[in-house]
Amino acid sequence: MKTTQYCVSRRVEVKTRDQLRSEHCVVIVQELIKHLLYMRNQIPGLFEDLEWQIQAQEQEKDFQVETARLALLEHTSQQGAALTGGIKQLPRRKRRLQTSQKRLTKFMHSAKVLLDSIAPQLFTAQQPMHAFIVFGSTASRPSELYSLAFPATDQQFGGTPQKAMGDLARRTIRALVMNTQDMPEGKASAGPTKMFMLACSSLQEESIPAGFLYKRGFQIRMKKGIQVHIDLTGAAQPDDMEATGGILPSTLGSQDNLHWYQCKMVLKGLRSPGGGEVDRAG
Q1: Contact 163, 29 (CB under 8 A)
Q2: How many CB atoms lie within 10 A of CB 93?
Q3: Beta partners for 36?
Q4: CA–CA distance, 35 with 84 (Å, rounded to integer)
Q5: To the nearest whole percent, how much of the chain has pLDDT over 90?
Q6: Complete DSSP assignment for 104-137
Q7: Angle, helices 22-39/162-179, rounded to nearest 10 degrees
Q8: Interatomic CA distance for residues 236 and 247, integer angstroms
Q9: Do residues 25 and 154 lie in contact, with contact meaning Cβ atoms separated by under 8 Å?
Q10: What is the pLDDT of residues 206-220, one digit of tens each?
Q11: Which is nearest to 118 in space by CA: 105, 134, 131?
């Protein structure tokens, strides 16, 4: 499939039965990031499968340490010697990990930091909020942009079944897939690239979560590439999209009452199955 040489945008509407809570919004953004990392060829498998792989690796490492400890206890018991050095005397029988496996472990750890940074405080009860997941060399000039428009949310926490939150996230991803099948292929899938997570809302600088940085005077400029706007507000499409922080043909700018924030953690996709890089926002 040919890559686009101009800016292509698409609006995807997702209807919700009830008022969204902040915890709903967190899960939707987290699950969309996992989905996009895989679909845009930035990770070698489904995010959940890679998590299981890392967990299995850690369990194997713990098993090897425990086996070595028991072997040492048996040996010293047979020799009639007392243990004096504790764990420091354990034989170091480390199995060397491949460089690609180390990079995968580092990538998944950093991805977890990014996902955990998406806190309910980002989604204010007073005003709508926009979340942005962008791929490219810089956050201000991405090659692909995915935005989510959230309405003013219910700030109550707890009481929402995990299944209900997961169902809403899956419905959002399903709507994205079904409504973008005919779009041209973006550049992100061609190789490893950076992924940035940003937010745009009326939230004041002193109220942002610890994992985000305030971006004064920030703008997103796109002359070509892919833009997908996922609307969960239930509102009609306005004529003046700039007033809502929505998708523009070339520029996404901040207004006086809107502020931009960028997640401190910036991911870079994996070079090959198992290899990857991670960057931090400066």
Answers
A1: no
A2: 10
A3: none
A4: 51
A5: 38
A6: HHHHHHHHHHHHHH--GGGS-SSS-EEEEEEESS
A7: 50
A8: 14
A9: no
A10: 778 889 999 988 889
A11: 131
The C-alpha torsion from 8 through 13 and 19 to 21, rounded to 10°, is: -40
Q: How is 79-104 classified by DSSP, letter by letter? A: HTPPP-SGGGGS---PPPPPHHHHHH
C-alpha to C-alpha distance for 12 and 142, rounded to whole angstroms: 20
Q: Which residues contact 127 (CB under 8 A, 6 or more apart)?
A: 152, 201, 202
Q: Is the separation of the CB atoms in 42 and 111 below 8 Å?
A: no
Q: What is the pLDDT of residues 101-119, one digit of tens each?
A: 888 999 999 999 999 999 8
| Cα–Cα dist 10/123, whole Å | 24
How far apart CA 27 and CA 229 sit, in angstroms, is 18
- Strand pairing category for 225-231 and 7-13: parallel
d(CA 162, CA 165): 5
Contact status, residue 114 vs residue 144, Cβ threshold 8 Å: no
Give the integer Cα–Cα distance in Å for 195 and 215.
17
Asked if 276 and 193 touch (Cβ cutoff 8 Å), the reply is no
Q: Are strands 212-215 and 277-280 parallel, antiparallel or unpaired?
A: unpaired
> If DSSP codes are grouped into helix, strand and coil, which group holds residue 203?
coil
Structure token digits, residue 35: 């989905």
Q: What number is the average pLDDT over the span 80-95?
A: 50
Residue 55's alpha-carbon distances to 49, 60, 199, in angstroms, are 10, 9, 31
pTM above 0.90, yes or no: no
Three-state SS for 272?
Answer: coil
Could you tell me if 188 and 54 are in contact, meaning their C-beta atoms sit under 8 angstroms apart? no
At residue 181, φ and ψ (nearest 5 deg) are: -65, -30
Q: Which pLDDT score, from 0 to 100, does residue 22 have?
A: 87
Residue 171, SS3? helix
